[in-house]
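Help wanted!
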Amino acid sequence: QSVLTQPPSVSAAPGQKVTISCSGSSSNIENNYVSWYQQLPGTTPKLLIYDNDKRPSGIPDRFSGSKSGTSATLGITGLQTGDEADYFCGTWDGSLRGGVFGAGTKLTVL
Amino acid sequence: QLQLQESGPGLVKASETLSLTCNVSGASISSSPYYWGWIRQPPGKGLEWLGSSSHSGGTYYNPSLKSRLTMSVDTSKNQLSLRLTSVTTADTAVYYCARNYLPNIIFDAFDLWGQGTVVSVSS
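Answered by r_m:
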C-alpha cells in the first residue's frame, strides 16, 4: 500500500490532454516538493518534473506539474502514442522520515 | 558525461545477503555535493526508495528496511554499495542507483539513473 495514491490507469486520445493525480497528506505532499517520472515499457524511470512544477532541461512544455494542499497533478497536453508509459509521483515524508513514491499510473493513448 | 551502472549477483537464495555496487563514471563522488539513492522496483510494481547517501552528508534509510540495509560510498573506487541481509522473495526486484537532482538534498528528485540490475531471490 503506497503512501501516495495514484489512479491505476488513465486514457485519452492522441492530441488530447490528460491529468494524473497524486494524493497524499500533510506529512508528505503538502509540506515537501513533488517530482514526477515517466517509465516507458522496459526502460529506466525518467525525471519529468521536480519541485512541483519545474521541468529539467530537455523535457517539453507539454508536461506540467502543479500542487495544491495534499495533492499534486501531472498534466500532459498534445498526447502522442509515444507518451504511453507508467507515471510515478514521489516526495519526502516527514513522518516516515523517508522518500515515498506512488504506485504508478498507466497512461494509454487510444 | 555522468553515468551510473549497477552490478550484482542476479540470483540470491532466501535468507542470504544481497550485495550490489553502483559504479559512477564521468564525475568524482568525493567532489560531488549530491546524494546518491538506491531505488527498487518489484516486477510489475511501483518504485520503492531504499535510501540515500553522500560522501560527506551521511546515509538515510527507508525505515522499513533499516534493520537489514547498509549503504555506503567508496570514494576511492568512485562507487556506491548496498547490502541487504536476510533476503526473501519479496526482495526480488530491479535495483537502481540514481543521483538526486539538487545538491545537498537527501530526496528531492532523481535525474540520473543506472540501467538497473535484476535481482531474483529463490526460496
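OP: Thanks! One thing I noticed: The interface with chain B takes residues 2, 33, 35, 37, 44-47, 49-51, 56, 88, 90, 92, 96-104 of chain A (CB under 8 Å).
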